[in-house]
Amino acid sequence: MRKLPISLVLAAAATLAACATEPRPPAPSVAVSPPAPVADALRPGYGRVSIVTTVVYPNSTFPGMFRLTLRMDDGTVQVVDTRGPAIPLDERVEITADRNIRYPVVSRR
């Protein structure tokens, strides 16, 4: 019987040991849908800021945007992403016909 070199024996043992480990379950995948186009759904009107959150991308980067949830005077809720400064809670804002946020709001008569 021929003797095998030790390095060949060690390589064979390492290969068998690698095959003997239990397979890992696949990593869970997370489906991230792109943000819904909110700008086309905006309706002009007046309302108050009820929620302010920062927008963070799935890779944990901050794009410099804030998401405002607005309770409009007609009772509806609108969600707006803006690159402007964060507007404090309960402040009055106006959504203009050209889909801009006007703040501070000049008092209406």
Strand order of the largest sheet: 3-2-1-4-5
Number of H- or I-type helical stretches:
1
CATH architecture name of the domain at 39-102: Beta Barrel
Strand content: 25-35%
Largest sheet: 5 strands, antiparallel
User: What string, H for helix and E for strand, traces the elements in order?
Assistant: HEEEEE
> What is the CATH class designation of the domain at 39-102?
Mainly Beta
**Oligomeric state of the chains in view:** single chain
Low-pLDDT windows of residues: 27-39
The residue fraction in helices comes out at 10-25%
Supply the helix-strand structural class: alpha+beta
What's the gyration radius in Å? 29 Å
Separation of the first and last Cα atoms: 105 Å
Could you explain the architecture of this structure?
There is one protein chain. The chain has 109 residues and is an alpha+beta fold. The chain has a domain at 39-102: OB fold (Dihydrolipoamide Acetyltransferase, E2P), CATH 2.40.50. The protein has one helix at residues 6-20, and strands at 45-54, 66-72, 77-82, 92-95, 101-102. It has a 5-stranded antiparallel sheet with strand order 3-2-1-4-5, with no helix packed on it. Strand 2 (66-72) and strand 3 (77-82) form a beta hairpin.
